Amino acid sequence: DTNVVQYYFDAGNGFSAVVSLEEGSGTVGTIDSYVPHVVGGVKYTQGWGAITGVVAYDSNYEEVAGKVRLDVKPVDNLSLFIMGGYGTDDNLNDDAGNVVDAHGRGFYKQWSGNWA
């Protein structure tokens, strides 16, 4: 479980956005100071599909991660998507006795390396 303060906006024309401040959860994800994790996202949906983007700031490691997803419906009974992500990992190298070592992964960047 995580504590969250969130605002969601829906323009009613296919555009929506969200911003949230999160405490995190688990041994590694829970914030260790007064600075919360910050997450923001936007989405545009139409009959052809949708494009979605989200960016998150991990306040424990002071790292950023983001993802973009494109959904396409070429016909009514077929839906395709492609997604890519990028995250910084300069501070995700702690093998120095934390409860769970990061090994290049963070609360919002679950993959190793910068690109996913």
How many domains make up the coordinates? 1
Q: Tell me, what's the shape?
A: globular
Q: Give the mean pLDDT.
A: 86
Oligomeric state of the chains present here: single chain
Instruction: Outline the low-pLDDT stretches.
Output: none
Number of strands: 6
Question: How much helicity do the residues have?
Answer: under 10%
Give the biggest sheet. Answer: 6 strands, antiparallel
Distance between the termini: 26 Å
Tell me the strand percentage band.
Answer: over 45%
Q: What's the number of helices?
A: 1
Radius of gyration: 16 Å
Order of helices and strands: EEHEEEE
For the biggest β-sheet, the strand order reads 1-2-3-4-5-6
* Secondary-structure-derived class: mainly beta
Structure description:
This protein is mainly beta and 116 residues long. It has one domain (4-87). The chain is built from one helix and six strands; from the N terminus they run E-E-H-E-E-E-E. The protein has one helix spanning 26-29, and strands at residues 4-10, 15-22, 37-46, 49-58, 63-75, 78-87. Strands 1-2-3-4-5-6 form a six-stranded antiparallel beta sheet, with no helix packed on it. Strand 4 (49-58) and strand 5 (63-75) form a beta hairpin. The longest helix has 4 residues, at 26-29. The protein is globular and about 45 Å long. The model has no long low-confidence stretch (mean pLDDT 86).
